[in-house]
Write a structure and sequence with these properties.
single chain; 242 residues; alpha/beta; six-stranded mixed beta sheet; four-stranded antiparallel beta sheet; 9 helices; globular; binds adenosine-5'-triphosphate; binds magnesium ion
Length: 242
């Protein structure tokens, strides 16, 4: 399998505040790659660096074999990077269909017909097709999360970036999201999934990485990462002296 994404020693932050410290990791094509880590460890910032909202001060990001480190966010989106936002922010007064259509047009669809077809297939994939005429402002949290995913799919990504799409949901709803992610993987998407819910990550990912203070502190088979000393200490709050 070839790599869809490589972070090589990325240093990045906001203004002078450095958040990502020599962050390196690799995602294989077709994988669901999970990312965990304490609040403020830089997970969302990693997505910001990846899609081009912030520019690294050093290091390289290779996406689908191309060095994208200096490319604009717009070009990266058109190359196939699609993200969800940790806090869903749809256009509340627009229908679900219109919300996804905007993403499809913005994401570089070359014809209106193609954008329309893509919007409808994204709504089908996420189970929102029957609700496509409803206003986004009327949705439950689960459907808002689904809509975030549909909007990301609307940009026809090769690599889908999910930022806490299961946060705040009930156990049954989390299972719905897990099934959706499995469907997306089966449909051929490569996925990077940030989430705090450990059992969800172990059950849904092919490989897991744990971040702390902007660094990768563990990376490998999900169960092994969760059980590693670094993660037990850094993420689960187990005191060394206990
Ligand atoms: N726009 C910003 N300007 C300055 N600092 C920021 C900005 N966004 C985030 N930070 C800081 O960067 C650090 C990492 O934040 P980030 O949102 O990447 O963490 P996270 O791992 O996604 O956390 P969470 O699990 O709470 O979502 C935090 O200290 C945060 O306060
Ligand atoms: Mg975050």
């Amino acid at each position: 399998m070839s790599n869809i994404l490589e972070f090589e020693d990325i240093n990045a932050g906001y203004g002078r505040i450095r958040i990502l410290n020599d962050l390196s990791f690799t995602v294989e094509e077709g994988q669901v790659y999970g990312v965990i880590g304490p609040n403020g460890s830089g997970k969302t910032t990693m997505f910001n660096a990846l899609i081009g909202l912030i520019k690294p001060t050093s290091g390289r990001i290779i996406f689908d074999g191309v060095d994208i480190t200096r490319m604009s966010a717009n070009v990266r989106c058109k190359m196939g990077l699609g993200r969800t936002f940790q806090v869903p922010r749809p256009f509340e007064n627009m229908s679900l269909y219109e919300n996804v259509l905007v993403a499809a047009v913005h994401g570089g669809s070359n014809s209106e017909r193609f954008a329309r077809d893509l919007a409808l297939s994204s709504l089908k994939m996420t189970g929102l097709y029957d609700k496509r005429e409803i206003r986004a402002g009327e949705l439950t949290l689960l459907d808002r999360k689904r809509l975030e995913i549909a909007r990301a799919l609307g940009t026809s990504p090769k690599l889908l970036l999910l930022d806490e799409v299961a946060a705040g949901l009930t156990d049954a709803e989390v299972k719905d999201i897990m099934r959706l992610v499995a469907d997306l993987k089966a449909a051929g998407y490569s996925i990077v999934w940030i989430e705090h819910i450990i059992e969800t990550m172990v059950g849904s990912t092919d490989r897991l990485m744990c971040m702390a203070e902007g660094r990768c502190v563990a990376d490998g088979a999900p169960r092994e990462v969760i059980e590693s000393e670094e993660v037990q200490r850094l993420y689960l709050g187990v005191d060394e002296n206990e």
